[in-house]
Amino acid sequence: MTDLAFPVEWVALAAALFAVAAYAHHRFWLRRLTVPQPYAAHVRIATPDGSEFELRRVSPSVPRADAVPVLLVHGVAIDHRNHDLLPDLSLARTLAAEGRDAWLLTLRTGRPDVRFRERGGMTFAHMVEHDLPLAVAEVRARTGARALDYVGFSMGGMLLYASLGRSVAAAEIRRVVIIGSPVRVRRPGLGWAARWLARMPAPFWPKLPLRLPSVMVAFVSEAFWTPIHHHVCNPDNFAPGVIRRTLMTIHDIPGALCRDFTRWAGHGGPIDVGGVSVEAGLAACAQPVLFLAGQADRVAPPSSVRAAFEMWGRDRGEVDKSFVLLSADAGCSADYGHGDLAFGRMAPAEVFAPVERFLGR
User: Fold this and answer.
1) Mean of the pLDDT values across residues 247-272?
2) Is 3.40.50.1820 the CATH number for 38-359?
């Protein structure tokens, strides 16, 4: 017994030391790579179904009397920093510098402190029903605006596809910018697996843990490129140090939301809410809209973003809408991947500036 106790004690000690070292490593890089950003206001708002979302305000340095407030909504597995990573790499601060009152929404799925009792409500449909309409109403109430401009990145645009004319009145949105938001979710070769997985009851779906590993590997994330890099971005289109900082903004994907995306992929791609496809609703949209897609985007392929563009306003006759493909052939600095649309090396000139011009019309 004595011979066995000695190695067991050493194993326990080694495990404890490893845990302490891992915790210290995590805290060090989180503090080292996260750049704090100031906000004029930061509010947390409760929803009727027992969850919460957050709004942050970036006030204009020189307000314009005729400027309409703009609501910026992030994608999946990230938070408000999707539109506000660094002082010089921020769509929100670009708009504020031009006199716009910019509001950053952190959806319930972008909060790091989701409680166990909220897990069942971490669905796409719950955000369509509660987060988006309440955020629009809150910004309108705080600014006195009759309508807002809306910028949606990836899932942020998908939420508007599902909400506009349903939970969000058409009159509440003046202009729309869609950045890399597919109207169909497809994963070639995984259809049968997705259909099988989608049958699993929602409570049994575990979250997809992304935040901890993202922080842990951030310090070596730019040492070499992996297939994961190329799936979520074009790594050659990033300035040094930016990929490491983006990893500080990554969040776990709740199991209920994973189930939604898996179900869509398993049924051929169309996004739906309660079994009703959102595609038909786009045909009735009349708001002027700008669609931006990346040539090298593997998360939201250009064809899926273009499908939403073609459906938008189809039943309304002449609608002011534009589709921009960010590619080297079109004169951009590179073929844009998904993450490049928010964090790319030339995003301030090739993404943010066109968005500001469109919203400023």
Assistant:
1) 90
2) yes
